[in-house]
Write a structure and sequence with these properties.
The protein has 204 residues and is an alpha/beta fold. α3 links the parallel β2 and β3. The mean pLDDT is 91.
Length: 204
């Protein structure tokens, strides 16, 4: 399909106007700071998006910490690839004991969450780290394994240059309120419903 001269000129003028508006919008943004980011929702991709952000940060030479709540029993591709390949830049702490319905022991789950939170606080306090991923912490908060007020206080007191990503479905409204960025993954279709099991390289 080809454009005639008039159509091509109209498109050029439209894009010139669009560029001027976009350039002005970008120029008006002057704040640079570490963010509080929340990945939540019923759809797949919350942790995956956080791990993609790790890859981007690695490209800029950042030091990164990952603390996994709930998860921990599986041998995952992301831990193999990121922690093993970049040991000087990525600290990985898989401190969960599996899904809550597997342990069936609230006291044990709370103890694991408390230990993971203590590790998260230590990493957040270390000025060498620029990005901290608290994977599935929203699940720990949902089941009251952690004190929400303590988590909110730690986020409020974080260093200005530190970005913290909190993943997991059912993020608390109070956490959403303090976040700079919130992304909700919407479930439209999932292969699990069609009998497809969790697969290495896709789910873990």
């Amino acid at each position: 399909m080809s454009l005639d001269t008039a159509d091509a000129e109209r498109h050029t003028l439209k894009m010139q106007k669009r560029k001027a508006v976009q350039d002005a919008e970008v120029a008006s943004k002057t704040i640079e700071k570490g963010l509080i980011m929340v990945h939540t929702g019923a759809g797949k991709g919350k942790s995956t998006a956080a791990f993609g952000l790790i890859l981007r940060a690695l490209g800029h030479g950042w030091k990164i910490g990952v603390v996994q709540f709930i998860k921990g029993a599986w041998d995952t591709g992301e831990q193999r690839a990121l922690a093993a390949a970049f040991p000087d830049h990525v600290t990985w702490r898989a401190m969960g004991e599996g899904f809550t319905w597997e342990t069936q022991d609230k006291a044990r789950d709370m103890a694991a969450a408390a230990a993971a939170w203590a590790e998260a606080q230590a990493l957040m306090a270390d000025p060498a780290y620029r990005l901290i991923v608290l994977d599935e912490i929203n699940i720990a908060l949902r089941y009251d394994y952690l004190d929400l007020a303590a988590v909110l206080a730690a986020l409020a007191a974080k260093r200005p240059d530190l970005t913290v990503v909190l993943t997991g479905r059912n993020a608390k409204p109070e956490l959403i309120d303090v976040a700079d960025l919130v992304t909700e993954m919407t479930l439209v279709k999932h292969p699990f419903k069609a009998g497809v099991k969790a697969q290495a390289g896709i789910e873990f």
